[in-house]
Amino acid sequence: MTLRIRQARLDDLGTICRFRLQRTTWLAARGSDQWTRQGRGLPIEIFARSVAQAIGNGETWMAEVDGEPAGTITVNDRADEGLWSPGELADAVIVHFAIVDLRFAGQRVGQALLAHAGSVAREKHRGWVRLDAWTTNKDLHAYYGRAGFRLVRIAGPEATGPSRALFERPTASWVPKRSTALADLLESARRLG
Which of 22, 104, 146, 189 qualifies as a cystine partner to 70, CB 3.0-4.6 A? Predict the structure, then answer.
């Protein structure tokens, strides 16, 4: 399996909307109101406009497995009002619209997309990757916990949207540890040089 993450293009918008509709149906079959109109989720038309704008801004990526679209993520520095403080936003990138095609569930595509958000945060010299998750979706909360995120808080009444469970992960937690052999070699070179 070859997984690649690339910048999304406007011609990916239909695929991204398909991912969202697919997951909404899947979630509803499991009793979740995530992304539904009843649950106060964005109607697909507004979702499509938001994603199209993010694609235009260079904020959306696609994961491909063996050349097939497998997932998407949007990463920027904006969040809905009332979720994060200005200080929390200043040192973070914010994840939006992270969705994996059901055909690729369980193949670590979501983990790769979140790690990509970590690399975006490093490039922007931000210390945190933050996101808001659907408040009532406890399975999603557990997923983010397994992905190394910690629940910071449930946003208060000033946040009016349905995604008020706030999670974060330090950017540095994605930085690979140097091997001992490499560290020893670098130290030896430093001493000789």
Answer: 104
Task: Retrieve residue 190's tokens.
Answer: 């430093």
The structure tokens 């910690």 sit at: 150
The fold of 3-192 is Aminopeptidase (3.40.630)
Domain boundary assignment for the chain: 3-192
Separation between Cα atoms, residue 30 and residue 19, nearest integer Å: 17
Radius of gyration of the chain (CA): 18
- DSSP line for 131-190: EEE-TT-HHHHHHHHHTT-EEEEE--TT--SS--EEEEEEGGGGSPPPPHHHHHHHHHHH
152 band by pLDDT with thresholds 50, 70 and 90: very high
Backbone angles phi, psi at 182, to 5 degrees: -65, -45
pLDDT at 184: 55
Going by the DSSP 8-state scheme, the letter that residue 43 receives in this structure is P
